[in-house]
Structure formats: structure tokens, C-alpha cells
């Protein structure tokens, strides 16, 4: 195994088919994803690695991993970490450490989990001193649970009966034979090195009471150091086919013959692995890693980082021919760094159990090749490009551009919007909505088009929030009319949308018949579409009101923007009345969704209540409520009371504002690796001078090119912050 520091271990639930169960069509969809472990936090172990996943006979899921105490290395002291789910992966018990190897120099290594479906026992086999680093000999160890993974036996030393050959089981699951020959036999396969070199299996015909060696597939040269391109079968995952044969999907450690998986087959219940049965599966390209395999209802599934060179691009494949061929469609689970994976499914009677498989895998956000660097030091943002998109007051131009918004589209374009204030710099008055599009990641931009014109209103339009429906591809822009009720009444909440990547726009639609006439100033910034439960697919647009509907609130649509209703509200105090300085007055705001499904709203603290800093509100119910108990003041995010930018990208939270308690100067990018609990000390100064509102986005289209960048749009000036609107492309990993 390699020296790797990974970021998290993730459980993923894939729906195999949305159609009827007896339809052989497999059309997997990622249904839900949750991070189960992230190492390196305060009081945490250094690294979690080597995730295993199994069903139990009572229908629970058990997720098991190595908790590496002090370093990310394969050697060293570890716990075995366990989390249980009794509701098909929706919720998980807190981590229990079921085995502790103390302070060994070459501690435990996972491992293989096997369920005895006759007794209900869950058996976990792992190794101690596998690398013989400051210790000798290696031991093969076993613990078991007879109560659905709740309590575990003391470790038992299987080397007493097996001998002291180095055996690294799995990683993955072992099997219990269901078909002839040897129904009921437990088979755990793994690999050895030096003593017992290659793939081999251990067998038990008495429910784990006694074990012996079975099949072996020996490396060449055997029990000797290997070179590149030598035959060196390594970590492996067995599955049983309906004909009773056992197929073992094997890591091709030294890239012998191909950069792809080795497949070997046992026809005698794991007693032998004849070389005649060995094939190289060139469809399953592989960077040499532990992969996941599962046989379910006649379909074989396979997960690995599908790349010949790097541990990236975790991909799910499936085969209707027991692995002889693979379907052309494959589902990319994660384009970025991804390592070991394991798959399981439940065997209950409910239709869901035939519909879902569960994948656990190592997931990260940076290149595995650089992983000895601590993860908070990998983000090293630098400005890669900057362009002024709008400068007001030129000949024939509108007076002032303000309130910039920026969004991605599902086709990978960038759309920049701003208010084009026709005759003055003021918030009231007549305006256009200006748009520029870029289809080349911000390198070039279309000329400005004015997609909405409010005529000559005394209290015209105000931006605004842009939200992309990733299911339909629609780009929806919500803005207000007559927000200040200056020579007009009532306020209106308006919507336009584009169904062609921002090229053409619908006529404005007044949402007041659905919403009523509360004053609502959306954003400014972007709205979100929920990706994680609850309320997956919901559009959530947050903003603030004043006088009628005073404070922060959100409007929600569960039908792709056809109908909208009010959701969460965080009321100002005194409500719907004039505020004094230092009153509680939540104002302009930017929501983001965290990977736990909560919505975090970064809010302008308009009257500097409690601090000259940002307020952060949180909704745990998909934008229905914003409980005051969840509200915090983030003293790190000093702020002069302004609209700020926030963005979640690949688990990292980014924030932009003029970082100054009194003036709109010093536009600064910050980032947090723990969902905003704290911010990395380093910052990127985007512009030291006058700077106002800002908004961020990132692209999701082309993972290789789009992983590296975020895009910021902000108000920038030499003397006044509203002189121009600037677009900045930021390279997050500028030192790589
Ligand atoms: C396990 O048993 C083997 C063989 O008796 C012995 O050499 C080894 O030290 C034992 N390991 C542990 C951890 O007790
Ligand atoms: C990811 O995997 C898929 C399926 O094997 C493959 O088509 C694609 O080229 C891979 N992408 C990268 C960047 O390796
Ligand atoms: C700019 O922001 C940085 C980071 O918060 C801070 O250290 C610095 O003092 C700020 N400078 C000004 C002039 O506000
Ligand atoms: C990175 O993390 C380490 C340990 O958690 C900490 O000591 C260090 O100050 C952090 N570096 C930055 C730039 O935040
Ligand atoms: C991804 O980006 C690279 C570099 O810009 C480009 O060569 C490639 O064609 C893009 N792929 C897709 C699918 O857009």
C-alpha cells in the first residue's frame, strides 16, 4: 500500500434502476453521499483509510476503517473504527473504536469482513506486523460480533493455527459460499509479501471456529523483491457467481502485462486458483489500487479509480456477463482523487434492497502524489487572470454598474450580471440588467446585452439572485421592483429565466401572485439547488426584506421554478420597524449548502450588532426555518456591512469580502476546511483598494480543468468601490 494522506471516507448510495425491478436495465444514479470520516481534526486521529462496508443479516450496514493514530503511513499504531447504520445508510452511529493496537511501530492493517449468514456472525480478519517493521512475525487476527456489530469479541490470533505467513486480508469483504461446491464455507482472500507472496485465501468450514489455507496465486519471482512489470498479484476482492465459481478481482501491483485488473477464478470452492483461469481485464484500467466488486442479482458491479496512472476518477461499472464484458455506460462517482473502495448491498425483502447498492471509498480533493503535504497547506490561491467587465460613466454608457452576480451554467459557461444604473449611482432609479457570457472559462466575454429594462421608474429594479436548476439546465434570475417603495407601491418580486445557457431570456414574470407583496431583495448573489437531503432538487433563494418582511428570508420552489413559496425567516429586532445603530438587522445574504445537507447563510450584519463581523445562520430543514439557536457571529470575518461572497467547492468553504471593519476596501479571499468553524490563517488579497460587493462561482463541467479554479466578480475602484466591476479567475493550487 502507498504512503497516502486522504481526506475523507465517503459512503455513497447508488440507485440501480428507477424502472421496474424485473426490467434488466441498469441505470445507476447517485442517490446520496455522506462523509463518514475525516481525519486530522482537533482531537482526531491523523488519517482514516482502508474503508470496508458490509451488510448484516439483520439488515444493518457496518462501515469499518483503519484509524491511523499519528500519521498517514501504512505502518504505525491504529484503531479499527466502526460506524453502524440501521436505516439503510441514512443515519450512522458515532464512531466506535473496536480494536486498539496500542502504540505498535507496525500495527494493525485491515482487512476483510465476512458475514456468516447462517449464524449471523460478523467476522473481521486483519493483520498485525504485516510489514515486519521493528517486529516479527506477522499475525493474522480475528474479532467477531454476534449482536449485529454492536459488541465485539477480544482479538483471536489465527496464526496459531495458520502459521505466521504475512497475510493482508482483502481489503474488502470475504464471502460465504451460497452455491455448490462447499455451501456455507467462509472464504477470505488477501495477499502476502515475502513470506506467502501473491494472492491467497483462508477457508473455514465451521463458521469461523477453525481456519486453514486454501488457494494461492503466487507472484513471480516468488517471495523475492519485485521490479516494475513483474507479476505481482496484490490486494483483492472475491465474489461468488451463480455457477458456484469464485471470481477474484486483483490489484496488478507492478503493472504486469497491462495497467489493468487481474481476474482469477477458483472452481473448487477456494482450494485452488489455476493459472489457466487467469485473465487480464483491459476494460478495467487501474492505477494499482484496492477496488470494489459485488455480484447482485446476476449483475456484477465494479468500482475503482478508472485511470491508468493516478488515483482519480472513481467509477462504477457493471456487467451482465459475470465480468466477461462490461456495459459501455459507466457512472463517474468522483472525478477527483479517490482511492480504495468497497461495495455492498442489503438482502432483505423490500423492493429498495434490490434497488440500491452502497459504495464506500476514499475521497480527497488534492493530488494523491502530493499527499504528504498537510491538507490545509495545499490550497494556495493566486490570481490567474483579471478583467474589468464593466466601467460606468463612459461615453454613451450608463452611469454606474453595481451589484455583480456570477454563475456557472450546466453547459459550463459563466454568466456575469450587474445592475446598469441608467442615470445615477443610487440604489433607486431606472436600470437595465446587464449580462455578459463566457464560454471559455472567463478568457473572453460576449458584449453586454441588457436582458431586462425597467423603463424610467423612480424606484426601478434591484438585483438579485441567480440560481441554476441543474436538472433542467434553466438559469433563473430573481430581482425586485420598487423595493424601496419610493414613489411606488407595492414591491414586486420578479423572475426571468433562460433555457438556452443564458443566450435568450423569458419576459419578466411577477411572483407576487404566489408570494404576496412583502419587500424582498434577493441575494445579492446566487441561490442554490439542494443536492443533499432533505429536499433534494429544491431551489432556495435567500435575501432580505425591510419594513414589510424585515430580516433575512428565503423563497423555495420544489418544481423547478414554476411555483414559489416563503420558507425560512430570521427576523430583525424590532421587527418591521426602524432600526438604530447596533440593532439586530440581518440583511443581504449568500446561502451555500454543506455536504451534510444543511444550508449555511452568510449574512450582512447591517447595524453592526454584537460585532463588526458577519452573521452566519443555518437551516437544517432545507430552508424551511432558520432557528436563532443556529445563529453565530463569525469574529474572524470582519466586515464593514456589505454583500459578501460564499462558495462551497469540493468540501472547502470560500468567502470574499472587503476585510475591514469600517471601510469597503481590501477585498480578501478566505477559506475554511471545516465548514466555516475556523478559517485558514492565510488569505489572498484580491484588491487592497476600494472594493464592495462580491460573488463567487465555480464550474463543474470539465473536472480536470475545472477542479483548479474559482471565479470571483466584485466591485472595484481606485477612489470609489463602485467605479467598475472586475472578474477574477483564481487558481486554488498555484504551487502545484
Ligand atoms: C500469534 O501466534 C503466533 C504463532 O503462535 C505467534 O508467533 C505470534 O506472536 C502471535 N501474535 C500475537 C500478536 O500474539
Ligand atoms: C474516467 O473513467 C471513465 C470510465 O472508465 C473514462 O471514460 C474516462 O476517460 C475517465 N476519465 C479520466 C479523467 O480518467
Ligand atoms: C486586509 O485583510 C487582511 C486579512 O484579513 C488583514 O490582515 C489586513 O489588516 C486588512 N487590511 C486592511 C487595510 O483592512
Ligand atoms: C495547518 O494545520 C496545522 C495542524 O493542524 C497547524 O499547526 C497549522 O497552523 C495550519 N496551517 C495553517 C496555514 O493554517
Ligand atoms: C476540458 O478542458 C480541456 C482543457 O481546457 C479541454 O482540452 C477539453 O476539451 C475539455 N473537455 C471537455 C469535455 O470540455
From TrEMBL:
Q: Cite the entry's keywords alphabetically.
A: Carbohydrate metabolism, Cell membrane, Cytoplasmic vesicle, Glycoprotein, Glycosidase, Hydrolase, Lipid degradation, Lipid metabolism, Lysosome, Membrane, Phosphoprotein, Repeat, Signal
Please give one Pfam family short name: BNR_2
EC number in record: 3.2.1.18
How far does the signal peptide extend, from start to end residue? Answer: 1-21
The family database entries (Gene3D superfamilies) matched by this protein are listed as: 2.120.10.10
Q: What is its main location?
A: membrane
Keyword GTP-binding set for record: no
Entry GO MF terms: exo-alpha-sialidase activity
Residue ranges occupied by any Sialidase domain in the UniProt entry: 66-346, 412-697
Q: Where in the cell is it found?
A: Cell membrane; Cytoplasmic vesicle; Lysosome lumen; Lysosome membrane
Q: What is catalysed by this protein?
A: Hydrolysis of alpha-(2->3)-, alpha-(2->6)-, alpha-(2->8)- glycosidic linkages of terminal sialic acid residues in oligosaccharides, glycoproteins, glycolipids, colominic acid and synthetic substrates
Q: How does it sit in the membrane?
A: Peripheral membrane protein
Note whether Lipid biosynthesis occurs among the keywords. Answer: no
What family does the database annotate? Answer: Belongs to the glycosyl hydrolase 33 family.
| Biological role | Catalyzes the removal of sialic acid (N-acetylneuraminic acid) moieties from glycoproteins and glycolipids. To be active, it is strictly dependent on its presence in the multienzyme complex. Appears to have a preference for alpha 2-3 and alpha 2-6 sialyl linkage.
Describe the protein's quaternary organization and the partners it interacts with: Interacts with cathepsin A (protective protein), beta-galactosidase and N-acetylgalactosamine-6-sulfate sulfatase in a multienzyme complex.
UniProt-recorded name of the protein:
Sialidase-1
Source organism of the structure: Cirrhinus molitorella (mud carp)
Lineage, highest ranks first: Eukaryota, Metazoa, Chordata, Craniata, Vertebrata
